[in-house]
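TA notes, week 10

Several of you asked for a full example with nothing omitted. So below is the full record: structure tokens for the whole chain, then the designed sequence directly under it. When grading your own attempts, check the secondary structure regions first.
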């Protein structure tokens, strides 16, 4: 009983930790966009993350084999989990502010619930999960306000780009379950390596390094994106999926906007009102409802 409680608390702590890290990535993307185009942001973030994990795996004496029986799975995950979102999110954030980007991302748990119901055996859709998601989403709305709507064509295209990029995370999470038993740093290293391969031709064609005037903040933002929310956090994400399932992991979509609003206040002087306090309560309640174990079979 105590062991199960400790495991559950560890899962929640890791969920909040990942939410805090990934929320900060929206700020880092905005800074990176100052001198890098979306394809460059995607490639450098993926490549730096793969190098970071290569060194981590090498340090612990793990396997460095980039070609194995799981190569096709690594390649597919790399495409869905890195190449697609790491380019579409920066593209969308060129036009849209980060707080709208995070609210769009918060729609992911709804998609995760539906896909997990049809493609997994142990994460079936239930009324309490739906209710929990609705309550959690209400918290997100309180966090960022009603500015989730867009009013012009460019903003609409950007919103669609962010949603498609974020949705690819959901699909990749279901695929990761197939190899979640493998060491998380090794899996993430391989998937990021293949993500870099997918983006390499595009960065060679559309990259414009010769025209860039380098500055420290965008470069540091790219390094942060590669090491922390990609290399480190993606490895921890696999651990969370293995321990609690992909549906639980996608609840991070409700936590990211809350931290995103806080970071906006901290770094961009955006105001925080009572809506943020209400949002935190609703998010916690929503996640709690979705995770309550029913006493009878659903």
């Amino acid at each position: 009983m105590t062991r199960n409680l400790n495991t559950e608390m560890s899962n929640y702590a890791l969920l909040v930790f990942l939410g805090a890290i990934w929320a900060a990535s929206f700020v880092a993307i905005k800074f990176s966009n100052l001198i890098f185009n979306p394809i460059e942001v995607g490639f450098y973030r993926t490549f730096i993350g793969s190098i970071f994990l290569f060194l981590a795996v090498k340090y612990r004496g793990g396997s460095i084999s980039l070609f194995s029986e799981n190569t096709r799975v690594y390649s597919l995950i790399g495409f869905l989990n890195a190449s697609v979102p790491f380019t579409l999110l920066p593209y969308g954030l060129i036009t849209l502010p980060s707080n709208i980007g995070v609210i769009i991302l918060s729609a992911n748990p709804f998609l995760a619930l539906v896909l997990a119901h049809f493609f997994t055996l142990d994460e079936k859709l239930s009324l309490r999960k739906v209710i929990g998601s609705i309550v959690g989403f209400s918290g997100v709305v309180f966090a960022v306000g009603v500015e989730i709507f867009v009013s012009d064509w460019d903003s609409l295209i950007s919103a669609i780009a962010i949603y498609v990029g974020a949705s690819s995370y959901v699909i990749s999470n279901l695929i990761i379950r197939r190899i979640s038993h493998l060491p998380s740093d090794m899996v993430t290293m391989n998937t990021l390596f293949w993500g870099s391969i997918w983006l390499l031709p595009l960065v060679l064609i559309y990259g414009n390094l010769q025209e860039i005037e380098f500055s420290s903040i965008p470069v540091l933002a790219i390094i942060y994106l590669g090491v922390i929310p990609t290399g480190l956090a993606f490895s921890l994400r696999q651990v969370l999926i293995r321990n609690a399932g992909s549906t639980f992991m996608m609840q991070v979509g409700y936590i990211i906007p809350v931290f995103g609003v806080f970071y906006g206040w901290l770094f961009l002087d955006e105001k925080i009102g009572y809506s943020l306090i209400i949002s935190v309560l609703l998010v916690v309640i929503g996640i709690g409802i979705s995770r309550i174990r029913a006493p009878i079979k659903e």
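DSSP finds twelve helices and no strands in the chain. Use that as a sanity check on your answer.
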